[in-house]
Amino acid sequence: MPGSTGWLAGRGAVITGAGTGIGAAVAERFTAEGARVVLVGRRPGPVRAVAAALGERALAVPGDAASAADMARLAATVA
Question: Beta partners for 36?
Fold first, then answer.
């Protein structure tokens, strides 16, 4: 894997559903390609576990993507 010199080096992404499955896999791939990621998911435990596994390139922000209040909190966190 290219790591920090990959095709996403210097970019950021918000990934919803990042605690399991496809969301977690996308987060892993994006960080491997050099991106920093903000992981969003309804269950705090899995989202934090994925962020911990990915290291300093990942930030866990538990929340529901369908909730306007949660998304406002996400925006305030990453701003």
Answer: 12
Q: How far apart are CA 35 and CA 73, in angstroms?
A: 22
Burial of 76 (0-12, 13-18, 19+ CB in 10 A): exposed
Global model pTM greater than 0.85: yes
The string over 17-34, giving b where at least 16 C-beta atoms fall within 10 Å of a residue's C-beta and e elsewhere, is bbbeeebbebbbebbbbb
Strands in the chain per DSSP E: 12-16, 36-41, 58-62
Q: pLDDT tens-digit profile of 30-62?
A: 999 999 999 999 999 999 999 999 999 999 999
For residue 38, list its beta bridge partners.
Answer: 14, 59
